[in-house]
Amino acid sequence: MPATPPRVRLPWVARLAHLWRATTRTVSGLLFLALFGVFIVQIAARFGFDKPLPWTDEAAVIVYLWVILWTAAWVVPEREHVVFDLVWNSVNVRTRQAMRIAGNLLVGGLAGMALPASWDYVHFMGREGSPVLGVSFMWIYLPFVMLLVAMVLRSLWAVVQAMQGRGLEAELHL
To answer: What's the pTM?
Structure first.
């Protein structure tokens, strides 16, 4: 019987990053499952029992917003976001490094500049609730603020990576 390999202990930062990725993916999956459940209830009530439920439309929209913005912010890796890489693949590594730093400073800077006003607006909207469920608009629009925070953090990380010369190889997107 072959010996089992020794268990590798990851540094606490790597363990924390792994836990964060697992948690965000789980939340994303649960949100999608909730959206699917609301959708099934909506179809069954409307077409099966001929008694549409008003709350299902509102719940579906709220959960849909959360699924899209949460997943874009925390789950989808940078390499999976839409890119225009025709120029990227035609330049040398030093130019890629400058492009990555400049692009991420621009995106992260704009998201960072939008963050305070966006938070103020989302916080202000907490005074009102959705028409049917009465869910505070702050909770409905909160994932947009999370998306901005994620954009700032990802951009800072990408700038650090680019300054160290990582992630500058040409990629073939098919």
So the answer is: 0.79
Where are the chain's structural domains? 12-76, 80-174
Lowest-pLDDT range of 11-20, 66-75, 131-140, 156-165 = 11-20
Q: Which two tokens stand for residue 85?
A: 């890489």
CA 149 to chain centre: 10
pLDDT at 167 over 90: no
Going by C-alpha positions, the residue among 52, 7, 60, 73 that lies closest to residue 31 is 60
Contacts of 130 (CB under 8 A, 6+ apart): 58, 62, 137, 140
Contact between 106 and 152 (Cβ < 8 Å): no
44 residue type, one letter: A
Closest by CA position to 108, among listed 143, 164, 168, 149: 149
Query: What are the E-state strand segments in the chain?
Result: none
Burial 78-103 (b: 16+ CB within 10 A, else e): eeeeeeeeeebeeeeeeebbeebbeb
- Enumerate long-range contacts of 24-29, CB under 8 Å, 24 or more apart: 24/70, 24/74, 24/75, 25/75, 27/70, 27/74, 28/67, 28/70, 28/71, 28/74, 28/75
- pLDDT value at 168 more than 90: no
Does the pLDDT of residue 144 top 70, yes or no? yes
